[in-house]
Amino acid sequence: MSAKTLVISGATRGIGKAISQSFLELGAKVIANYGKGHEKAKEFESEMSSKSLSSKLELSSFDVSQSEEVSKAIKDIESNHGRVDILINNAARVQGKK
Question: Dihedrals φ, ψ of 47, to 5°?
Fold first, then answer.
């Protein structure tokens, strides 16, 4: 997995956090998407740093429900990392909540 680049949406909390950590432990480059939870994302980054896993972690904030934001983010990621090998769509939105 060390040569793979992953984008994981909803990657800094709950199931997404566990998925992200698992791939980091396998040596993959993880682009961890989060929406509005900047504090939680920074806590996740700090936690991965304490486990010596942050060198292959990159946080990326964009709203996966907005196609223009997703397109821009993917173009930026591909520009910086060459390509995306694996995309895991984990982010969800509960109806009625923002």
Answer: -65, -45
Q: How far apart are CA 47 and CA 11, in angstroms?
A: 13
Closest-CA residue to 58 (of 67, 70, 76, 66): 76
Task: For 38-97, write each residue's pLDDT tens digit.
Answer: 999 999 999 999 999 999 999 999 999 899 999 999 999 999 998 899 999 998 766 665
The answer to whether 10 and 39 are in contact (CB under 8 A) is no
Decide: pTM greater than 0.85.
yes
Three-state SS at 23: helix
